[in-house]
Amino acid sequence: MTTPSSFPFRRAVVLGAGLMGRLLALSLGRAGCAVDVYEAGGPDAEGAAAHVAAAMLAPLAESAIAPPSVVRLGHYALERWPQLLAGLSAPVFFQREGTLVLWHRQDGAEADRFANLLEHTAQAVPELPAMQRLGAPALARLEPGLDGRFTQALYLPQEGQLDNRAALSALLTDLQALPNVRLHWQSARAPEDFTAAADRRVIDCRGLGAKPQWPQLRGVRGEVVRVHAPEVPLSRPTRLMHPRYPLYIAPKPDKVFVIGATEIEVEDLSPASVRSTLELLSALYTVHSGFAEARILAVMTQCRPTLPDNLPEIRAPRPGVLQINGLYRHGFMIAPAMLDAAIELLREGRSPLAQRLDLRVELPR
């Protein structure tokens, strides 16, 4: 995470033990700080968006909806994730086999629109690996299990994914092993609960839990299905173009697949609707018939913490307090960049990395 070195403080309070909270608490704890983590839920992180996420690391694919700043954050994080995971005591599945984009013949116009967006991104962020257009033979070589099912595809090299739940669990294990880190579960706290101290920082990573202090936050609902599909040979994250519900399929270890598509502007954590679940599963079946015999492990909903322009932000509302929020649907994709920028701010009071990657930072004047 971070190598032991001096921060201008000895103590830290981290609010929220989702992905960002765990990454920051472990970095600070390993650097020698006494860290108290306060989490409204329990150690399983079931209330965190990261618990439900597909954890795809796909900056070029996401550029269809995300601006170049988020793409740069994601590209940076692709190189940082292996370093972060290598520092954990438990193994975490990580893959960089690229992203495959498919479409049925009737959705060719939607695929063309998507490809044009990606080509525009390539001009704005030239460091990204170039998108490749595949015909049927090249597609069959890349994914033999799709031979004869699609006549063309797009391939986005070097994009990746990881196992979200294994990552959260490994971070927790290493936090629990640090004697200078104390974890407080079922303990909701706000920055106002802590008085200012010269040798202590408060870092707020609560996502939607921070809405009372950051009213511009909103939740964007997503619905995700996890299935076990032994008969499906997909080996890399795959996206299916569709004008109404573009689908993503992320293969995890042991033939588990995470499938999602929905993006609903509502803060609602009620169970998924029959309609959206049927649409997800019917689209899934058109990718590979082996999904017909898959076993549904879970149908989950989540609300991603989102700011008005869908961009992440780090801000310091007052001295000694740092807030990190608005990661939207890109939590795992950009978290390492957010982590490193936050560490720079905590250590130096400024972040050259944030400036280089166009990450928005608001500090007291």
Overview of the structural elements:
It is a single chain. The chain has 10 helices and 18 strands. By secondary structure, the protein is of the alpha/beta class. The protein has a domain at 11-51 and 164-215 and 308-362: 3-Layer(bba) Sandwich (FAD/NAD(P)-binding domain), CATH 3.50.50.60. Strands 6-7-5-12-13-14-11-15 form an 8-stranded mixed sheet. The chain has a 7-stranded mixed sheet with strand order 9-2-1-10-17-16-18, with helices on one face. α1 (19-30) packs parallel to α9 (331-348) and α4 crosses α9 (331-348).
In short:
The chain has 365 residues and is of the alpha/beta class. The protein has ten helices and 18 strands.
Keywords:
FAD/NAD(P)-binding domain, seven-stranded mixed beta sheet, eight-stranded mixed beta sheet, globular, 10 helices, about 375 residues
Largest sheet: 8 strands, mixed
CATH class of one domain: Alpha Beta
Helix content: 25-40%
Low-confidence stretches: none
Distance between the termini: 30 Å
Tally of helical runs: 10
CATH architecture of one domain: 3-Layer(bba) Sandwich
Outline type: globular
Please outline the helices and strands.
Blueprint: E1 11-15, H1 19-30, E2 34-38, H2 49-52, E3 56-57, H3 59-62, H4 68-86, E4 94-95, E5 99-102, H5 108-124, E6 132-135, H6 136-142, E7 152-156, E8 160-162, H7 164-176, E9 181-184, E10 200-204, E11 218-228, E12 238-240, E13 247-252, E14 256-260, H8 274-287, E15 295-306, E16 313-315, E17 321-325, H9 331-348, H10 352-357, E18 360-362
Parallel strand pairs: 1-2, 1-10, 2-9, 5-12, 10-17, 16-18
Antiparallel strand pairs: 3-8, 4-8, 5-7, 6-7, 11-14, 11-15, 12-13, 13-14, 16-17
Helix pairs in contact: 1-7, 1-9, 4-9
